[in-house]
Amino acid sequence: MTAAADSILRTRPRLSRLAIWNMCVGFFGIQIGFALQNGNASRIFQTLGAEVDNLAILWIAAPLTGLLVQPIIGHFSDRTWGPLGRRRPYFLVGAILTSAAMIYMPNAPSLWLAAATLWVMDAAINVTMEPFRAFVGDNLPDEQRTGGYAMQTFFIGAGAVLASCLPWLLTNVFHVVSTAPEGVTPDSVKLSFYIGAAGMLLAVLWTVVSTREYTPEQIDAFESARAAALTAQGADDRQAPARSHRAWYVGGLIWGFIGAVGVGVVSYAGLEKELYVLFGFLVGFGLLQMAVGALHAARRSNSLTEIMDDVFRMPKTMRGLAVVQFFSWFALFAMWIYTTAAVTAVHYGTSDTTSTAYNEGANWVGVLFGVYNGVAALAAFAIPVIARRTGRKAAHAINLALGGLGLIGVFLIRDPQLLWLPMIGVGIAWASILSMPYAILSGAVPGRKMGVYMGIFNIFIVVPQLLAATILGLMLKSLFDGQAIWALVLGGVSFFIAAACSLKVTEPKADPA
Questions:
Q1: How far apart are the first and last CA of the chain?
Q2: What is the average pLDDT value for the chain, to the nearest integer?
Q3: What is the rounded CA–CA span in Å between residue 510 and residue 216?
Q4: Per CATH, which fold does 13-232+313-502 belong to?
Q5: pLDDT tens across 451-495, in order?
Q6: Is 85 helix (H, G, I), strand (E, B) or coil?
Q7: Residue 170 parent element (H or E)
């Protein structure tokens, strides 16, 4: 397409299947890293001496990092333009950092170094992943976005199948050793991370090299035409007004007060250390709000103030989806943290990380994670068809309910060889979570702010992870005698709540033709 032709475009043209394929290949690599992290981080922590009720707190740094990184990366990627374009520089830098962390993670000599490496790895994955979400919204017209995010889901599922099954394949097909002395990560896990690091980098490079992006001027032209057409239709595309600096002060004082009181109660009553993190976070969040209020009052224009203003200008559709995301990701985080501990203890009868039974069970969990990701890859092709028949939000509600049945099914089924059955429901829910909310959201936010709004949206992925990391260990210890299997039941209930909330989301009007 010539520059002259480009300059007169006022609506995003439809892209070929090959172009959409190239846009999404990078997610194959991202999910290799993400799946290896989800399937093996708790295993590595237990190998290095972590107790079951402390697993959740060791994961907390990762979502804390995402809470800060994703909106900031989204904001700056909206304003980046160079030889690699708008989003692609972030793809590349994040992939390099993630690959380096993946090589170190299984070699960490101590528990806290492993937790710190998980922190770095998750931050780097966020740097790569957040702009990928905006990338589809940038380049596809509304009628292709559900299919575009479904294609992403296919690659996410395919990458996760490979990564999740790697330890099992290396042990059972290539006869790599899967047991090790106390405190040492098995060779099968180490080699899986090395292979994953290479796959991550190569897949992201594919997308960086094979794709193009619209210039900021073209994005502005698309959005101006869209706004004019929606106005002509009488559509309400307005956003909520920005918060005044007084509202920032009041909000900051409330959160800071709650956090300070909580820290005092925890100290006085000698409660679990996880609660220090939760209430300490609230204090910090309150101070951050007050600082932004001070910046607002001084009428200073800076990136932090603009990002925080955007949080309170979220469209109505985005606010509804945020609630759905909260409960969906609480369920997912419970599953990722506790499935290995639950299956090895309940279905294989041991928590001894040096035993053959434990490592057999941990490898089988990798296969189960591969099953649900494989189902997600296949379901990605069916979801757009179902959405056209039932509507996006109804299809999402059905899929989330199937995920709830799946997690509770892990509790009910005691034969480990049959655990692949409930993973089918989890896989359908996972496919929907990866595509449907983003397909709905991308039509509800302005294109010139696609990156920052995708980043802000991911806050509602991070916050439930923080909540899970701070309270799940305490709940298991206090209410369920430390039995990890009950975390999966709580996750199933959370999926059902998300399904109910999905039905209340207000879908935006499609882009006018």
A1: 21
A2: 80
A3: 22
A4: Growth Hormone; Chain: A; (1.20.1250)
A5: 777 777 777 887 887 778 778 877 888 888 889 999 999 999 999
A6: strand
A7: helix 142-172
